[in-house]
Write a structure and sequence with these properties.
Elements: H1 6-21, H2 25-36, H3 39-47, H4 56-64, H5 68-85, H6 101-121, H7 153-164, E1 169-174, H8 181-190, H9 192-198, E2 202-208, H10 213-223, H11 234-246, E3 253-260, H12 265-270, E4 278-284, E5 293-296, H13 302-313, H14 325-333, H15 339-349, H16 354-364, H17 374-387, H18 392-400, E6 410-411, H19 412-423, H20 430-441, E7 446-449, E8 465-468, H21 471-481, E9 491-495, H22 498-504, H23 512-524, E10 530-531, E11 536-542, E12 552-553, E13 559-565, E14 568-570, E15 583-588, E16 594-597, E17 610-614, E18 616-617, E19 629-633, H24 638-641, H25 648-651, E20 657-661, E21 681-685, E22 705-707, E23 729-731, E24 753-755, E25 775-777, H26 780-787, E26 797-799
Parallel strand pairs: 1-4, 1-5, 2-3, 3-4, 9-11, 10-12, 11-13, 13-15, 14-16, 15-17, 16-18, 17-19, 19-20, 20-21, 21-22, 22-23, 23-24, 24-25, 25-26
Antiparallel strand pairs: 6-8, 7-8
Helix pairs in contact: 1-5, 3-6, 4-5, 5-6, 7-8, 10-11, 13-14, 13-15, 16-17, 17-21, 22-23
């Protein structure tokens, strides 16, 4: 168990104070307001995460070194701010606070800057060659565990015993796909005793079939707080990682390598560094050799499988249509103890007619054991999908999830773009989200919301929503997509990276998916040009492979997905032949933004409606007259939109939807953006360096939505914003530097939704009395400002979303 720290005590005090005031509206409002004073601290930590997120161990290290008095003074000031929040009520029953909001925000910011100066003085220059200790921020990459698990306790106990031993060892957990290996590894990482030993020095890395060592090591370097070097090769990357980890000599380290495939044993051995107390935990579907101990994860015993099945069908909570015990036993028996199959089948049958249960049992009774082979497992799961096909689009959308790289989060925003073009789903994403929630309810996919915003109630972009797909279910999607002749398939997946190609051309026992993809690849590169029949083409490639696609004829492709793991990518000339292309999705899974070359050829694609780029250095496009939507996520925009370059209004003259999210270098909107008269939606979110909007933004007369969430440096809105006569939604949540709204805001006659969470310091002009039929969605403190106008504004609605009150973010200081 870890020691109780001062921060733990402070957190406990805050929780106790909250309990005392939660039933007193006045005290509760003051308490919330006091906690809100810490928002500058939270945003500074977010903005300067690399430099100003020292864990408790780092503070201890600093105190031991020179300038001890200065460090102690700084830390004491830092913690004293928290103590001020924990004062109990005074004799009169009101909460006490010595500092006002502005003073406290300034003190917190000053303290953070002092901490940064101290770190700089300590020569934390992020170079491996320098002296000093390695600083971990906390557990890296550990997935959340399911709320309910069975049958893992014995394996967990045995593995934990090995991990808690001193010394160096490499352990292997093996079992069928979908058996729960990743869940077991995650439970270990979150175990109290394991966390107590390894503290923040837990690294969870997904290997997959084609591990990209340089990318893995780059992210580990970033996590450890060092500037990421330019690695010349995989060997160079691993060598540098070894030097990095050896700086922690004497502190236990746990490295989890999840989903390791045959042929990667040599790569795993590269991570076996000579460190005194260093554990490696490997999970694999195959019983790989060369490791110290192997733990086999067996199928669930029948009783546990029934318990798991009943939990996910929630039979005990239903009063009707409950099948008899014999039928339940038969259904579970056909899952052969495979947890994934149990959960999928349970959620599929939950609250379904009795006749469907009988039909499923009959379907599953045909053939061999579900565990006889990977192909047999996929066939059984496929039968479940066929029987439960209420809506053909649901099945098509499930198969589309396999178009993305394995073990990677799939952006919901990208799925909305794809499905809007392929199936005509609504552009707002409501229908798409209903399908995703359906798949999630069936355990065929997991919906992940990275950060919950108040504006999520409006659901107009879903930028924080992702889908996570189990690799076995991804294989099911591929298997479903590849049934029937290639010439008749709706979607085509091609992986052309060097490692995968070696698998394609290898032995037959390499795997079902390997043989499927190999057949696709060989068919596509026949000497005679082949017409690709698919509407959707997904290509995955890394920097080791250069391919000639001159023999491919993609004239029917409507959606192109490029999954990149490369520093540069050149659009192939064949794209000029994609006359029906409607949506282009480019996702770079590498650490640094990828550069796109030959982007000018996109100008010839007259049907291209949508482009979504992720982790890309945005190129200078030619003229895309018909482009309606451009989404840039974590992109570098400077090269494309810097001064002197072509005006964005000339490049995208008919653009209707422009979305920037987490674009760190975006300090101002591109020149000419206010000349795009067709623009209806403009979203600039989490772009912390954006300090101002164009003064002539009022020229966007057709603009209906303006979102500026978490643009923390934005100091004012232009007066001309009052000319946006069609604006119906404005979101300035978490724009903490906004001191006031412009006087002309009252001219927005069509404004219906205004999001203002964390905007209590933003003054409202008297002109807001003209905003009729307005709904303001905000926190309690901001609501106080609007309440004084409530009697003067017709049909004003103030909505305060219910949010979970917790103090978990305080622990971010240590992690």
């Amino acid at each position: 168990m870890g020691e109780t720290t001062e921060l733990d005590v402070l957190t406990s005090q805050l929780q106790q104070t909250f309990k005392l005031v939660q039933h007193d509206k006045t005290s509760m409002r003051f308490f919330r307001s006091t906690l809100k004073d810490l928002s500058p601290l939270v945003h500074e930590i977010e903005l300067y995460n690399d430099r100003l997120n020292p864990p408790r161990e780092e503070i201890k290290f600093l105190i031991k070194e020179n300038h001890a008095e200065q460090r102690n003074l700084c830390w004491n000031k830092f913690t004293s701010l928290f103590h001020q929040f924990c004062k109990k009520k005074d004799d009169s029953g009101s909460c006490v606070s010595d500092n006002k909001q502005a003073v406290m925000a300034k003190d917190v910011k000053d303290t953070l800057y002092k901490l940064r100066e101290i770190l700089n003085k300590e020569n934390f220059d992020k170079k491996i060659s320098g002296s000093g200790g390695l600083i971990f921020r906390g557990p890296f990459g550990v997935p959340q565990i399911p709320e309910f698990t069975v049958g893992l306790d014995l394996s967990l106990s045995k593995l934990k015993t090995e991990l808690l031993r001193d010394g160096r060892s490499t352990l292997l957990v093996t079992g069928f796909g979908g058996m729960g290996k990743t869940t077991l590894a995650a439970k270990l990482c979150w175990d109290v005793q394991v966390k107590g030993k390894f503290r923040g020095n837990i690294l969870f890395v997904v290997f997959s079939k084609t591990p990209q060592l340089k990318i893995i090591v780059e992210r580990l370097f970033e996590h450890c707080g060092y500037l990421v070097p330019e690695f010349q090769s995989d060997e160079d990357a691993v060598n540098e990682l070894g030097l990095l980890l050896k700086k922690m000599e004497g502190s236990p380290i746990l490295l989890v390598l999840d989903d390791v495939w045959p042929g990667s044993e040599d790569l795993v051995e590269k991570f076996q560094f000579q460190i005194s107390d260093y554990k490696i935990l490997v999970t694999s579907r195959v019983a790989l050799s060369r490791f110290d101990k192997t733990f086999i994860l067996n199928p669930l015993v029948h009783e546990d499988a029934v318990t798991l099945f009943r939990h996910y069908t929630q039979l005990e909570k239903k009063n009707s249509n409950i099948p008899d015990k014999v039928l339940i036993q038969k259904v579970v028996k056909h899952c052969k103890g495979l947890p994934l199959a149990v959960k999928v089948l349970a959620m599929s049958l939950s609250n379904r007619p009795y006749e469907l249960w009988e039909k499923i049992v009959k379907e599953l009774s045909l053939g061999c054991s579900i565990l006889d082979s990977n192909t047999e497992l996929l066939t059984r799961l496929q039968k479940i999908l066929d029987v439960l096909e209420d809506n053909p689009i649901n099945k098509e959308c499930f198969m589309d999830l396999a178009l993305f790289l394995e073990d990677q989060r799939i952006p919901v925003a990208a799925l909305i773009d794809i499905w809007a073009e392929l199936y005509g789903l609504d552009d707002a994403g409501i229908e798409a989200m209903n399908i995703i929630k359906k798949l999630d309810s069936m355990n065929l996919a997991n919906l992940l919301i990275a950060r919950k915003n108040a504006s999520d109630t409006e659901n107009y972009y879903y930028n924080n929503h992702f889908v996570v797909l189990h690799d076995l279910l991804r294989e099911l999607g591929i298997y479903q997509s590849t049934q029937g002749p290639i010439e008749q398939r709706k979607r085509l997946l091609i992986d052309v990276n060097e490692n995968k190609r070696n698998w394609w051309l290898g032995e037959k026992q390499k795997g079902t998916m390997t043989r499927i993809l190999s057949k696709c690849f060989k068919w596509c590169v026949k000497p005679k040009p082949q017409q690709i029949p698919a509407r959707t083409l997904s290509i995955s490639t890394d920097e080791t492979c250069v391919s000639d696609w001159s023999q491919v004829q993609p004239a029917l492709v409507e959606v192109l997905i490029l999954n990149l793991q490369t520093k540069q990518y050149t659009f192939p000339e064949l794209m000029e032949k994609m006359s029906k292309l409607k949506a282009l999705i480019v996702i770079n899974h590498g650490f640094r933004p990828s550069e796109l070359n030959n982007s000018e050829l996109l100008s010839s694609l007259c049907n291209l409606n949508r482009i979504r780029l992720e982790r890309i250095s945005v190129p200078s496009f030619g003229t895309l007259n018909n482009l309606k939507k451009l989404s840039l996520y974590m992109c570098n925009t400077r090269l494309a939109f810097e001064k002197g370059s072509i005006l964005i209004s000339d490049t995208f003259p008919n653009l209707e939807d422009l979305n920037f999210d987490y674009c760190k270098d975006l300090m101002a909107l591109p020149n000419g953006v206010c000349d795009i008269a067709s623009l209806k939606k403009l979203s600039i979110t989490n772009c912390h360096k954006l300090s101002s909007l164009p003064k002539d933004i009022g020229k966007l007369e057709n603009l209906e939505l303006l979102s500026l969430i978490s643009c923390t440096d934005l100091r004012e809105l232009p007066d001309s914003i009052g000319s946006l006569s069609n604006l119906s939604l404005l979101d300035i949540s978490n724009c903490i530097s906004l001191s006031s709204l412009p006087e002309d805001i009252g001219n927005l006659c069509n404004l219906r939704n205004l999001y203002m969470t964390s905007c209590a310091s933003c003054e409202l002009p008297i002109s807001v009395v003209n905003l009729e039929n307005l709904k303001v969605i905000c926190d309690e403190e901001t609501a106080v400002s609007w309440e004084s106008f409530q009697s003067m504004i017709s049909n004003l609605t103030i909505e305060i979303p219910q949010v979970e009150v917790n103090l978990n973010w305080l622990h971010a200081i240590r992690s």
